diguanylate cyclase (Methylomonas denitrificans), 295 residues
Amino acid sequence: MKDKAADLAIVSNKTFEASTAVNLHHYDISSALQTSLEFNELISIFCNKIQNTIPHNGVEYINEEFDLEFKRGVMARHSCSYALKVEEQQLGELKLTRSNRFSRDELKMLESLLCCLIYPLRNATLFQQALKMAFTDPLTKTNNRTAFNDCLLREIKRAERNSQHLSLIFVDVDHFKHINDDYGHGCGDLALSSLAGWLKDSVRGSDAVFRYGGEEFVILLSDTDIDGAMVIGERIRADIESHTLAYGMDVLNLTASLGVASLKGSDSPESLIKRADAAMYQAKQHGRNRIEVGY
């Protein structure tokens, strides 16, 4: 019969105030954990350091704030789980498993040693939050242009290395200047934030949406050829057209012009962007609310 996992424990600085000195001189955990600001590395370092004292077969770490799930080893029958936090800041949940029960002494020792982990995890959280803010557009909550430039270069290298397709879709709101002029910038901001949400809902989980600038967005489609990008682009165009935006007593219907391009062997990041952007402007010249391909 499978045993129930140990009760969830909350780790905080107050919880361990009286136990921070217990046996910690036998371990170099704290100094080892100062070498990284990556969650996965911190968990790996910690578990490696405690393996001899608290043997375990499997590790699972979940951090919902950063959509992170890290697993290592084999998840076994018996487990102990800890929801980690410090000063009310959530730091994720750590679970250790093995084939035999954890003893009371082992759990007590583990709970003492966890105080070495929570502050490095807090530092990693602050660092990742700062990175997230630096690469996020505050209005639309999409990735910003800096994030796009980094991601595009990385995805081009990956596509070339794995002989995969890569496509871009440029999306530009039609007559956006008229929205700002006729209804004010508050309405323009609402239109952009709403459209960003529609874009996120229309694309696949593997696709990434970026605000490129002004009323222009770009969608990065990994492992997608031109035909697949056109299908996705048409779905996005139709989805935008189908929505109605209410602003005060006014009702607006937005449309967008889209340009699509796929990576070619001779492409640089700049040339790929240029073809997709040119196709988008061609869509505007041909009547708006349509999609064109940049060859």
About this structure: The first strand starts at residue 9 and ends at 11. The radius of gyration is 25 Å. Residues 142 and 220 are 12 Å apart (CA to CA). The chain is about 40% helix and 25% strand.
